[in-house]
Write a structure and sequence with these properties.
4 helices
Length: 134
């Protein structure tokens, strides 16, 4: 049974890896063309601003604008990283762990006394998952 589960997991992992590699390849191509387009646009902006303000001021304006965008993106990434896991993720993790704990409890502990600690731990983890503040 474990061999068939391992085979199934291996097939699923291979399928997911292929799908993700295709997506990464397409995203890498999009990134290359996006960077090229952004560079071309910044070059045109630099030429336009140098006609209006002069070459040095145009470079300073573009550099300052890029620095502000980078700081805003870094701040947004910091805010996203600070957010705790969503309640839905914790609920899904608790619900996914319950059958595993039950099957392990049935196989490893034939008596109720041996299963009780596993059920208690699963209940405590599920309770913490559902009751934690967001």
């Amino acid at each position: 049974m474990i061999g068939s589960l391992a085979t199934l997991a291996g097939l699923e992992l291979r399928d997911v890896a292929r799908r993700n590699l295709r997506a990464v390849g397409l995203l890498a191509g999009a990134a290359v063309f996006g960077i090229g387009g952004a560079a071309y646009g910044l070059s045109a902006l630099g030429r336009h601003l140098s006609m209006l303000y002069g070459p040095m001021e145009a470079d300073i304006l573009i550099g300052a604008g890029l620095l502000i965008v980078a700081l805003l993106l870094a701040f947004a990434a910091w805010l996203v990283r600070r957010q705790p896991k969503s309640r839905q993720t914790r609920t899904a993790m608790a619900l996914a762990a319950a059958p595993v704990a039950l099957s392990l409890g049935r196989r490893l502990a034939p008596s109720l006394i041996k299963v009780a600690p596993l059920m208690l731990i699963a209940g405590v983890l599920a309770g913490r998952s559902f009751a934690s503040k967001e």
